[in-house]
Amino acid sequence: MTLLTEPVVAAPSGLPPADPREHLTSPRTRAVLRIQNGMLTAARAHLAGRGFTELLPPVIGPVTDPGARGSKQVDVDFYGHRYKLMSSAILYKQASLLAFDRFFYVAPNVRLEPPATSSTSRHLVEFHQIDVEVAGADRQEILRIIEDLVKHVTRHVLDAFPAELALLGRDTAALAAALRGAFGHTTHRQAGERLRALGHDQSPDAEIDWEAEARLSRDHEQPFFVTGYPKGSRGFYDKEDPQQPGALRSFDLLAPEGYGELCSGSERENDYATVVSRMRETGENPAKYAWYLALMRQGLPTSAGFGLGLERFTRYLAGLDEVWQASAFPKLPGVVSP
Amino acid sequence: MRTALRAPGFPEREVRERARHGAARAFPPRQEYGHSVYGAGVAPGGDAIDGLRLVPPVFMPGRLEKLIDLGREPQPGDVRLACGIGGFSSPLPLYVSALGSTQVSAGGLAEALSRQAGRLGLPMVIGENVVPSHGYGHLDTNVERSLRARIGAYSADLPDGSGGVVVQQSTEDADAEVWNAVYSDPAARPLLDSGRLAFELKVGQGAKPGLGGMALTARDGVDRRSFAVVPLFGDTDEQVLRCASAGTFTEEILRQQIRLMRNNYPRARVWVKLHPGRDVGLAAATAWAAGADAVTVDGAEGGSGWAPTSFLDHVGLPLAECLRRVAPGASCLLASGRMWEGSRVVKALALGARAAGLGRAAFLAADEDPEHGLERLVDCLALEISLLTSALGKYRTTELGPEDLWPLPEPYPPEPLPALSATPAARPDTTA
């Protein structure tokens, strides 16, 4: 098969094909998955070269990340105990700092997202994250690590996959523009003010919704960071800013051109009493997190980290309309699929 | 051993019962469990709300206004009963209070009640611990008792544009992810798409303020990881008392939980249920400032759940005092507690509530006639509310106020209230 000589193939729209054969044999799918494979290879090499150890992520546990907006966790019957498939491995990342100061996972996550999110072009029930955690790091340091990683992978894709990008019709000039200069920074408060000025009803206490993110994203040529999300919008493990009570030392990385959020992260909370209070503020029952709290009570290192959504990152680099196009077996919210 | 010792004027029988049966006597008789609904009895002469009188004036400018509007003398039937309740529309200033997990609210009765409430278009609250007790109904064979079945029964004949389902979640429910399960369930989508789904944060229990939910349950069936278990009838009895935790709240915890609800479930309304605590005014103000669409105050008279007798008769503020301590302004305050006839409802509205919750009365009506009992009870209430409101010279229930009561309730010294956030947090109630 000579993929590389084929012309641009029209992008499918809407839902994935019902027949997995059609999706898997599509030249577009194959080009996307080849790019994704290159992205992973480049990310692993980049992180390994900077002293990171790759660990294998846990798949199930008695608790998982409760901070996934409105989505249901998947229960697993673990010998009569209710276990969860990982919605993200954040709690295990903090615990793994006991073994390594700098590590990453390429972690599968499962979230039963509300069916309404199937039309956002950016939600999958099953997806992967490049999950990075660094002991002793602050937000500034971790933002630098993300920026270096994203730029390295972007550069690699531009260099190594010109034919695939051409087949997909990706505007490579837009990608190259993303590499020029440092990524921008804005705060959640500033982003909210900008959105309200544009007539969008953005709450100062909530996440930036999908539509608003896309709107902000369209105004940019480069990926950019939004920092300092409000407390009520994130999980209990993100550290509150001592200088700015109510705001977290958290951040998102948003891709330009309307692609929106690629990555979320934060400095982490590691004070036992603060975490217990924050669990209550997020409606969680501390008893459920016994193993995690026991570790924290004995002491866990300070850290900062992030999860970079692999399929979303692929969507951005490959210029895809829908995030499901970046998955071999896509599962959209509310859509029964193989 | 029993001697000739007597204690006139002292509750000797109760003391002797306790001496024989121990901790089990802290509760109503066990044989009533699952067959009775609880809550405070009526004090001789009634409670403070019963003690109030509705006092129509002689001069009625409001009636003149209505006369001009209609071009004829107004009648009680001209009272507009429809109102907005916590983001929903309701044909009456009434909603159906929480149906909990006790046996009395399980199975056929809960569904009969749900069906009738839906047919009437009245908002309905589904109580905490239904999922940990009865399952959600996805892969559960016990579907009839599940939350999903109640939602299905409610939605079956629900008129367009009216009513809504409010799903409570307690601390133990959070472990079972009740809200996430409902929000991500395609079966709940019609309610969500029509703006008729709300989640209610249960801060406390009406019948047992300061405690969590309680139920008598089979020793073998109880989930000991989620609930505390008390062998109330001895170590070998097959029934035990299952106790949920009360949940810890501070101002900051309540504020952030509400913000998280609004963040995580942007398409659902947010209700908050408070127990009749002494700081109920501050708690309600905190909830509204954080963006709650409705705050429910359950007077110590309320509750269908199993509660210790000491709580039923001695713990928590009476409803009248709760209402005196809460200043709703334009926000939606809901009141429940021994609501069953029109004058009590109208007095609660005059004390600041937007609507009243039917708890025990709704249960009993549906028990009397599973097909139409609640509908007939509501018919009767609608007539009474119309008569009483029009007698006061008012033609919307939202116009009722303390001036309609005697004695005029004394204002409560204001508590320090939290600052409102920069933008109005609560979504405005456009249904009124």
Quick recap:
The complex is a heterodimer of chains A (338) and B (432). Chain A is α+β, with helices and mostly antiparallel strands and 338 residues long. Chain A contains 11 helices and 11 strands.
C-alpha termini separation of chain A? 26 Å
**Main sheet: strands, sense, barrel of chain B:** 8 strands, parallel, barrel
Q: Terminal Cα separation of chain B, in Å?
A: 65 Å
Mean of pLDDT of chain B: 86
The CATH topology of the domain at 79-211 and 246-406 in chain B:
TIM Barrel
Name the helix and strand elements of chain A from N-terminus to C-terminus, one letter apiece. HHEEEEHEEHHHEHHEEEHHEH
CATH superfamily of the domain at 79-211 and 246-406 in chain B: Aldolase class I
CATH structural architecture of the domain at 79-211 and 246-406 in chain B: Alpha-Beta Barrel
Overall helicity of chain A: 25-40%
Overall SS class of chain A: alpha+beta
Q: Biggest sheet of chain A, strands in spatial order?
A: 1-5-6-11-10-9-8-7
Rg result of chain B: 22 Å
The stretches of 5 or more residues of chain B where confidence is low (pLDDT under 50) are 421-432
Strand order of the largest sheet of chain B: 4-5-6-7-11-12-13-14
CATH third-tier fold name of chain A: BirA Bifunctional Protein, domain 2
**Largest two-chain interface:** A-B, 33 and 42 residues
The number of helical elements of chain A comes to 11
The coarse overall form of chain B would be globular
Number of domains of chain A: 1
Q: What's the total count of β strands of chain A?
A: 11
Strand content of chain A: 15-25%
Detailed description of the structure:
- The complex is a heterodimer of chains A (338) and B (432).
- Helices cover 35% and strands 18% of the residues of chain A.
- Chain A has helices at residues 20-25, 27-48, 90-96, 139-160, 162-168, 172-178, 188-197, 210-218, 272-281, 290-298, 310-318, and strands at 53-54, 60-61, 75-78, 81-85, 102-110, 126-135, 184-187, 224-227, 250-255, 260-267, 303-309.
- In chain A, α2 (27-48) crosses α4.
- Chain B has 432 residues and is of the alpha/beta class.
- Chain B has a domain at 79-211 and 246-406: Aldolase class I (TIM Barrel, Alpha-Beta Barrel), CATH 3.20.20.
- Helix content of chain B is 34%, strand content 14%.
- Chain B contains 16 helices and 15 strands.
- Chain B has helices spanning 12-21, 48-51, 61-70, 107-120, 130-134, 147-156, 171-176, 178-183, 189-193, 251-264, 280-290, 309-314, 319-325, 342-350, 360-368, 373-391, and strands at residues 53-54, 83-85, 88-90, 94-99, 124-126, 165-169, 197-202, 214-218, 228-230, 239-243, 269-274, 294-298, 333-336, 355-358, 405-406.
- In chain B, α10 runs parallel beside α11 (280-290) and α14 (342-350) crosses α16 (373-391).
- Chain B is globular.
- The interface between A and B is large, with 33 and 42 residues.
